[in-house]
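User: Batch of two.

Assistant: Item 1 of 2:
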Amino acid sequence: MNPRSLTRRDLLIAGSAALGAGLTACETPPRQRFAELTYAHFGPFRLDVATIEIVSEYQSPLAPPHIEHLLPAPPEQTLRRWARDRLVATGAAGYRGRFVITDARVTEAKLAKTEGIRGAFTTDQSERYDGAIAAALEIRAERGNFRDGYAVASASRLRTVPEGISINARETVWFELVETLMNDFNAEMERQIRANLTRFLRQ
């Protein structure tokens, strides 16, 4: 087609199409959805207490190197979900349970990269994510502060990611890190409850 035969309308349509194609190419991929981490399928611990309180003593700095508040499954929220799913008060007045979150952090550390010509042909691990969670289950008499029973569990894990990783792939690593941390915590807290709180467990 002779360029001189193009009308102004033709040029506007062509320009709009090119602009639209450019914007589509630059769009950020949609954020992926993650399944909610739940623990009811493990079965409840039926405790001979009148109430169970869930509290957190951990306060995220909400600033680097801490990133726990950015995760698709923040550790503190997931620990609260664990307590709601697995701890059930079935007793009368006399004792109260208290689930205390003491750690729920994930930090990011930049890793050294290969320099020089070799670095141009090397895909390094660019960041390391260190996760740590901890919580305690206390049984106390409703009157007084004496602790009649106590179980504590913690877990720590780390993951690294390669340079150039996509946002979605990085979030998948974050999710899997918390999932693994919680599986470790769940197994350890089970052992601690059965070992140290037997007198407060009901069938």
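Item 2 of 2:
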Amino acid sequence: MKVAANTLRKGMVVEYNDKLWIVMENEIRTPGKGASVAQVIMRDIQSGTKTDVRFATQDMVERARVEEEEYQFLFANDDEYTFMHTGNYEQIIINKDLIGDPAAFLQDGMIVTAQMHEGKPLSVSLPDQVTALITEADPVVKGQTASSSYKPAMLENGVRVMVPPHIESGTRIVVKTEDASYVERAKD
């Protein structure tokens, strides 16, 4: 399906120069003189290389047909993660590079959404937020105000996060998976 270059959004998959690319960023630029252009940053799904392409806003780009399917996380073996399709119970193995940094937040039985193209996984999306246990937290420094200061803490999965001063070791918190930022104390 062809779409106009100015309608490309982050996460869309397009066919360009006989390769599949995922759109990382699209910015419409209007120079002082002349027509507007779409400045698109894309990553090659196969090799991982990035490219910066300038399209005229009315240029048509082939959008790849991508299905979103739910998978359940089973286990990890080094940098390979095994998932099971929730409908037909088929298993697939996905490399950590495809998942990225959020892979640290995968938990047994977690349901994720995989973007698939012709039976091959293109990307994996975790839930927006997960609950995690704090294993280490720096002590509170007297005189720090709770509103403006955060302190470093370590989660059970080895990820470092910044938390408010009142959060201590052993506390369960809610964390955003995309950037490992603190959301709130978990309601147990």
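The longest strand covers residues 19-29.
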